[in-house]
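note to self: dont lose this again. the chain is below, predicted strucutre after it. 193 aa total, dont forget to put it in the shared folder this time
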Amino acid sequence: MSKHMNWIFAVSLAAVVAGCATYPTVTSQTVIIAGVGPVEVEQLNVEVVNVMPAERLVVVRQGRRSWGVLVPEVFGDLQNIRTGDRVEIRRIDGVILGARRARKGARPGIVYTEAVSGPPFQNLPDKFVVRSLTLTARFESFDPATGIVNYVGPAGPRTHQVVDPDIKADITRLRRGDMVDLTFAEAFHFQKY
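---
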């Protein structure tokens, strides 16, 4: 993995976590992905405000909103990130891989795990990277007929379609207001401009 891509991954963490205090401005478009179907490609533009490599912290800003993110070591050295860098982040929510109640006292958040190379996004261009993440969110509702789950996470209210029957069964046991851990596979692309 190149150093250039490593710093981009670090900024991606911040972009998704941006909604913790106030929601970021996100634009989207629908595209068809073979094997997945229609998906929303979300786009977020951010500016790097500060980089603290020793603490593995990157602060980014969108408009007047700024937020920090601790960058895991898996994303490499932060020496290539500079204050003032602008990054366009495109992200595709993928398949829900799991759902369970979160631990007591859990707050909305996102934990990224290592990159995955399973079937969900095999036909994406090389510039997209696929990884898994666990999103802790407040459960709102689930419609078993449509498979649509509604939740409020760090980036605000979201909906997602659940296809797997086992995951649907797990979600039907949840109650409105429960904190839930949803595990996803997602694809993302970043471009410095």
